[in-house]
Design goal:
It is built from 4 helices and no strands. It is mostly helical. 62% of the residues lie in helices and 0% in strands. It has one domain.
Length: 63
Amino acid sequence: MNDLQNFKDALATSLYDMTTKEAIEQNVCIQCKQLPTFYSEAGKAEYQITALCEPCFDGITQE
């Protein structure tokens, strides 16, 4: 694992008590800890990157 991934994992664990990989493996949103909800294909794709469901991602980005 490289330094950037270690940093990202440490940050996610600090904020959410799990890494994005763990959230995706458990099929939960890293923020709300619920089954991920999606409204669009873009939301599904974003979940694979951030482990945030679409409503949580939209709340963070104010979309």
